[in-house]
């Protein structure tokens, strides 16, 4: 089998398509790596049984280890595919030795799926393994900080002024002035305008009032992405003019992590994912932190499947709204902002004045900046 298209279909369909022909050596290695992972799928086993096959012992080559598999997929697949395979291994098949085996942790390339796995399994790790796993946390958080800090802090740099600026930033590009200023470089024969001198807006700063931002983050297992992005967002906001940030994690109890906000790695290593949920307890704790109700934003980040009293939660949110505090009930805080939450309870919270929805970290920063700089 030499046709690349046939080889791809053979890899997609697996062993049932072997009649299409033999794989070349590299494709055969890819097939073995995919079968090591997806061959453990229950449906795959049922198909084997129906065909009269099934898994059995024998005198073939030794079984592939997790370390061998990781080495192979890094050699055989592009980075995006490797991350998908690792994510499926951890989240779909619960192959936890990817983040609990010291030999694996010394060589694995950090990525967000591995960070989530570390946070979900760190309670199983001995101190040496935890030290190695911390490398993954540090690397992924450093990448998130680099990407998010500019977006978050940009929200606080003021609004566009109409006067020119010498500072060249893409978000301040002045399209109209640039076009007018470079019309002399238009080439009719090519139907192209060549830009020799780009122009940019400046930004004006507004008066900044002191506000409190209180992030209440559900640390149940389903909220792991929001926990990660809340920690990084809080770190990006830390020290910005006009904002004092608090970060509180909760399940059926409340842990105030504010003193670690400037170190998101340390903060994430302290988070304990899983357990029940008492959102009302967290909201009441957050209310106790407020100094000036009309200068406070409480952002509750949860899937709103309340384990405590829903009526007590709704009452606590209504009291915050009535005293002039802005309440955000966010079903997700991550780069995708795909909300999954109890919509019936979300509607009850919206009915008493909370803003209910989902945001990216940048959108949350823009909302906070609008309140602080108005």
TrEMBL record:
<feature type="domain" description="VWFA">
    <location>
        <begin position="210"/>
        <end position="369"/>
    </location>
</feature>
<feature type="region of interest" description="Disordered">
    <location>
        <begin position="45"/>
        <end position="64"/>
    </location>
</feature>
<dbReference type="Pfam" id="PF05762">
    <property type="entry name" value="VWA_CoxE"/>
</dbReference>
<dbReference type="InterPro" id="IPR050458">
    <property type="entry name" value="LolB"/>
</dbReference>
<dbReference type="InterPro" id="IPR002035">
    <property type="entry name" value="VWF_A"/>
</dbReference>
<protein>
    <recommendedName>
        <fullName>VWFA domain-containing protein</fullName>
    </recommendedName>
</protein>
<dbReference type="InterPro" id="IPR008912">
    <property type="entry name" value="Uncharacterised_CoxE"/>
</dbReference>
<dbReference type="InterPro" id="IPR036465">
    <property type="entry name" value="vWFA_dom_sf"/>
</dbReference>
